[in-house]
Description:
The complex is a heterodimer.
Chain A: H1 3-22, E1 32-39, H2 40-45, H3 47-58, E2 61-68, H4 70-78, E3 84-87, H5 90-98, E4 102-117, H6 131-140, E5 145-147, H7 153-165, E6 174-176, H8 181-191, E7 194-198, H9 199-205, E8 212-215, E9 222-230, H10 236-246, H11 249-257, H12 260-263, E10 269-270
Parallel strand pairs in A: 1-2, 1-3, 5-6, 5-7
Antiparallel strand pairs in A: 3-9, 4-7, 4-8, 4-9, 4-10
Helix pairs in contact in A: 6-7
Chain B: H1 2-15, H2 19-52, H3 58-68, H4 73-84, H5 99-123, H6 127-135, H7 140-150, H8 152-167, H9 171-177, H10 187-196, H11 200-233
Helix pairs in contact in B: 1-11, 2-5, 2-8, 3-5, 4-5, 4-9, 5-8, 5-9, 6-7, 8-11, 10-11
Amino acid sequence: MKLRKVMPAIGIILAFMMLATAGCPRREVERTELILATTTSTADSGLLDVLNPAFEERHPFTVKTIAVGTGEALRLGEQKEADVLLVHARRLEDQFMAAGHGARRLDVMYNDFVIVGPPGDPAGIRGMTAPGPALARVAERQALFASRGDNSGTHVRENSLWQAAGVTPAGAWYISTGQGMGDTLRISSEKQAYTLTDRSTYLAQKDRLELEIMVQGDPGLLNPYGVIEVQGAKNVEGAQAFADFITSPEGQRIIAEFGKDRFGQPLFFPLVHR
Amino acid sequence: MLIVNSLREAFRLLLAVDREILEIAWLSLRVSGTATVISVLLGMPAGVFLALARFPGKAFIIGLVNTGMGLPPVVVGLTVSLLFWRAGPMGFLGIMYTPAVMVLAQVLIALPIVAGLSLAAIQQLSPGLRLQALSLGASRLQTVFLLVREARLPMLAAIMAGFGGVISEVGSVMMVGGNIKGHTRVLTTAMVLETRMGRFEMALALGILLLAMSFTVNAILTSVQQRGARRWTGG
């Protein structure tokens, strides 16, 4: 095609584009970036894809999400690389606050952990509620167990459950994957091992896993998430606005609704406005 | 500053010589070394053959090899996983999440690199050399050996590129190996894990170890290579 022939067409398209944008007012507000360090579980579940746009609609901040393990998220906060944290490892969060790295910590929501395992249930723990005796039996029968082994919130919880069960897990039956929840579930399914997982990641991948829920419903399996404003962060104002928003009635409503359409049940439960 | 502190701490960790770190480094060397050897044994003859043989579709095959030189490790990892997962067609072998399947994935990454660079090494020789050898009465096999000998410097570079490609990759070994502690954890996957846990010093220490290992292997190959090159500089 000759250039001369295309020119009028390009002209017309440009004219339409100008017309189309003529009605739109220029963005008046300058948007500042807000860095949120959070765990893979909140990011992978898709919750932030709903929460962040709602927040950005009301506030002049653009949220940049860094999804890492709770360990790294807290470390990023310590270095003031992140402005606000959304994490789930209460003990580590308290240490973080005690060390003066956080300006404010608020409860946000919870979901729960479940122990999943191969349908054949070699350790015979199906239907147990208390995680302690279930884990003790897994260890006793030396049934394969896959651990995240990555100092994530889930791994920290797993460790405290073993401690409560009075078992120091070690040996060929205890597999430490050092990977995220999704990958660890996949490895568990392949190796037909038990593992501790948050319910939401398991539900999201259930169809492709040969794993079933074995143990659930104990208060010791609840998994609370907290939001922390980083002390002396670059964007203090944004961090406050974000923490206020996800604990506000609107933020809490979004959390309560999330996942109902896809999984038939909510994945997270609000802790402030129920 | 974080980077200065991390570096200092990294060297301290390296000097402390942890047994677990040594095992991880040894596995890295074993897996990537084996993959490189296999890739050389298969890729070099393939590259030489592609350079010298004449057959229909040759340009197409060369195009494939050259594309393969930039094969993303994640693509290799995913494909190998889909094949070797229990539900996959090769699942019956039961080698998923073992060093064996990691070697296989790395061969797929290194093979095109070695083959492609060997091919280029032979092709950059003067075409007259081959005709001369043949006209002086060399057999075809003798001619091939002569050409390979002439191209040995870039051939060694092909080996180094292949080894460098696999010892440093993380995408495929993470996926097919699973980063399982004591079984399939190698230096690169351990680095990812340490970084995720916020233990940057340890990650950096592992990175320094990885570079040191890479350097040692390449230094050995380079000394062999440069001994050959000295002829040209008269040294």
